[in-house]
């Protein structure tokens, strides 16, 4: 048994187990921590698939940035909330699990019919990565996929603007309402103590 | 490399199925969102495995784009969840029955 097969059989059960554990955790923060374990396992798979740049990007972007964002939002919304895992729709959970099992079975049969379980990856990937994976990837990205790459910059700017608008809408509504209340109450200001925002319906 | 490519594809299918079961079963919007991330990662694993199988880097570039789209999606989705939580004080999707209120 060669090294990469050994690494695969060590990390594949860990990734599947951490995915299932993520589903069964009642607390969102435990689910997030199991998802980080899963992302690290996927990074190891990228490494044995000769994609060292994606290995680094997976750890930095997914296990780093995205999961920090998730944990930040979980902390913002309250860590101590636990979810009621009782089934609301009769039989929905078993139907969902049956659907997932059927999906795995179907894809496995399709892979068996398509490429078979003994097809090894061809040799010669070292030639593709000859001067380094990041350099080779940059050559493909900036030569063949230059236009999609530029479009992703628009996508990222739009996402940042959308997040700002979504996060600031409530604050602006409070400010306008407070200004109106202050104008109505006269120079003494609103009766609400400062720092206690009230629930205000925005003007349609 | 002596691991058959099909092993990675089957693993990717299993992770995708776990993610979709999570979206269907869980009621917490944040955990549903994490399950969607798991699905995206499973698709990325399949893309990188195909890239290795075909001996070129197009699949890795596509996985890279997929990560960019996932980052944008996480930012907007979490902002929506925070906005909904501010208004309704809940992230349980069973209690969010209406699109407007």
Biggest sheet architecture of chain A:
none
Q: Note the run of SSEs of chain A as H and E.
A: HHHHHHH
Shape call of chain B: elongated
Shape designation of chain A: extended
What is the typical, i.e. mean, pLDDT of chain B?
90
Q: Which stretches of chain A are poorly predicted, pLDDT < 50 over at least 5 residues?
A: 189-196
Number of strands of chain A: 0
Helix percent of chain B reads over 70%
Give the helix tally of chain A: 7
Q: List the chains of the largest interface with their residue counts.
A: A-B, 86 and 72 residues
Helix and strand composition category of chain B:
mainly alpha
Helix content of chain A: over 70%
Report the span from N to C terminus of chain A: 67 Å
Helix run count of chain B? 3
**Termini distance of chain B?**
56 Å
What amount of the residues of chain A lies in strands? under 5%
| Radius of gyration over C-alpha positions of chain B, nearest whole angstrom | 17 Å
Low-confidence stretches of chain B: none
Written as H for each helix and E for each strand, in order along the chain, the element string of chain B is HHH
